């Protein structure tokens, strides 16, 4: 869109020779080229094209995101982006005020603003944000269905006022919202002007293929009184599906949706009820009564009773009063209007629950979007048009106060050079309506409070009497020569938008807005849960008195005052909507109609004020705080005395000249200057943020370090205390056990229990070893290893005697000890087998079933078989690490089987003991187990056979090895064999 050539002037402020004709000529020229948006500074003028334009897609949104208004072509997206930027950059609440006649495109403009705000969010927590956006957008569909209708001026006219606050988090993303609705035109439910349609909900319910039509006996082709001459269309069927989809998106339960459509059906059927009187004067209710009570969920008797009469509480007693035909018709219509009005209000409440800010989440900044009634002038203007036009007067007054009056008054107050611009102030019209005691609303309220029944004509007479001198009010009685006004019916108010003639008929009833308690009790008793919840006052005791409720006009006046008061606290943005013709057709331009709207909207005066005025004004302190980082003379702090001096120095340094200095504020004429300051500030903010983050993170880190250090000191003191406590408990346990820890107390967390237990074991070992001579400690280790391996499974293993180890070196055991020592020395040099730890003579049984006398030598690393005479090495030594298991007998037999899995050939040995000793098995086991553990780090496998049989492997074959039976005769050799069974004969059994 920004690449397309501009037509005419995109900003009316830039027009040459500003006149109303020039203004309308430029507006028409742009309209002819589909340029429907034009600026007046930051006010957007929008002309309804009555056709679809391709200027609202995602690619068009991207062109306006983060761009200043003067940088891009006029568009409603630019207003939405500027509105959101003020909220994000300055943290100020903003609002968009959309005004114009009915049919000028206000509702569509609000939709586009909502669409842009919803789409312009960050990617953080996208799922949640998408839900909020969807809810905000979908709520429009529901509100249009139940609150919009076709009028003679607009096919989708909002028949209620809507103001939506959208809440944003600190990132500027929507987190919820709230909708306020104003004065639904409920009289439309029971009365239509020719050519108009009722609310869209009725026609959507009666659309084709709708299950509800059959459920409640309705027919899409039938004629219903409250729907006038209009019928459903294919578009209504599509919109019905969209409405139900919106209900689903907002979380309405299916049962609740059923209740809503049931109530709509009940209102249609109420319009079909008829009344007649019997000859005795009894009132008879006719028509689709059963279908009606089925839709409303009430009993047939209760409905007939409520429509046929009323019950009054007088003096503590209940009095029944039957209705006349007129009263019955009034009751039926009042019930239909009240049910639909309460339904609409309840739907808005449910939508608010769906879009409210979650509890505990910050939603402090707001963007308000006001889409409220346009100014209306119909053939017959009733109470609703009076309220709607009064609302527009209030909004016009707000616009005048904020844009024209306050601005010019501020220039004078601040001493700024200024040429005043004349404008019409409509305060006098607002006071005509709302002034206390003298305004039209006050006169109507007095009439409603009168104990006698005041007619509409009497109300008009009272207004004529009180307002006869007002120049903006007249009637036929006050101006008899005005033939256009009807006697006793019409009065005219000269609004800022023109003269409007109102028919006083119905003003009293509509202002009272009363509904008899019988009808409230009827709806409260409904089986339709939602309808019952809409009427809580129906549960009040019939004899309980209550205050008279405020009149409809008073409630509307209060809501308008609250709305204006809330809007005054926000930064306003304006969209002024203009309809080019009354036929709602594209490419048609009615200059008189447009000229009239330009005049009463005050657009030309707005341009004059804008051209003569200033784009921005800010207090010196706020301006300085926001922009002081742009100059080295004001950052971080100005050394002067006043904020005004600081701002002057700042602007002089930045070479900004299009400003004027007021008494308390700085006035900047050009918007480009503001945008330039904002751009320069935005460029510096990241580095300042990084600096602040660095300083703050450093502060936090130092605080955390101090806390951690203090916590560590406390923890260390506590840990030392607990350790001392634990040591004391250990000392007590040692005292009780007389130096033996029978049970270990539970240790506090962090105590190295294994270290203390190791120290304890070493201390106990020291006490045990202290009496043992140092030279016997090595032998003690071997005995401990033997004891651990044998585990009391062998009763005699030489624990009590002195272990010599290398018995072959002992002359008393080996008479060739000198030869052995010589051979051992030679063997140690050649084979590097290490120091001799154990040696003795053995009887060896080999794989060839032969017995041989040999010598066994165990060194620090290997097991060696030596010749019994020469002591030379026989075969290669067997590393101790290759020993798989050691098998011995539980008896005193000196039989040892050393299993070597890798050789598949075990050492089957019968040890030869010295004459003074009876056992060498324990000593051999101790030496092998100790060395095996030292070399491998694991325990050697020692098998102790408790019977008389064990096993061995010789030549890869498994052989049985046994001790002889005691009754066998003595033999000469240590080993005998028969049938693969080897028998070892202990020395005591040999002859």
From TrEMBL:
Task: Write out the GO cellular component annotations.
Answer: cell cortex; microvillus; myosin complex; plasma membrane
Which PROSITE patterns does UniProt cross-reference here?
IQ (PS50096), MYOSIN_MOTOR (PS51456), TH1 (PS51757)
The GO biological-process annotations, alphabetized, read as: actin filament organization; actin filament-based movement; determination of left/right symmetry; endocytosis; imaginal disc-derived male genitalia morphogenesis; mesoderm development
Topological type in the membrane: Peripheral membrane protein
The Myosin motor domain sits at: 7-682
Q: What is this protein called?
A: Myosin motor domain-containing protein
Sites binding ATP sit at 100-107
- A Pfam family this protein belongs to? Myosin_TH1
Protein family according to the UniProt entry: Belongs to the TRAFAC class myosin-kinesin ATPase superfamily. Myosin family.
Q: Which InterPro entries match?
A: IQ_motif_EF-hand-BS, Kinesin_motor_dom_sf, Myosin_head_motor_dom-like, Myosin_TH1, MYSc_Myo1, P-loop_NTPase
Top-level taxon of the source organism: Eukaryota
Would I find ATP-binding among this entry's keywords?
Answer: yes
Q: Which SUPFAM superfamilies match?
A: P-loop containing nucleoside triphosphate hydrolases
Per the record, the major location class is membrane
The segment(s) forming the TH1 domain are 791-987
Instruction: Region Actin-binding: list its residue ranges.
Output: 560-582
Compartment(s): Cell membrane
Q: Which UniProt keywords apply?
A: Actin-binding, ATP-binding, Lipid-binding, Motor protein, Myosin, Nucleotide-binding
Molecular-function GO terms, alphabetical: actin filament binding; ATP binding; microfilament motor activity; phosphatidylinositol-4,5-bisphosphate binding
| Species for this entry | Pieris brassicae (White butterfly)
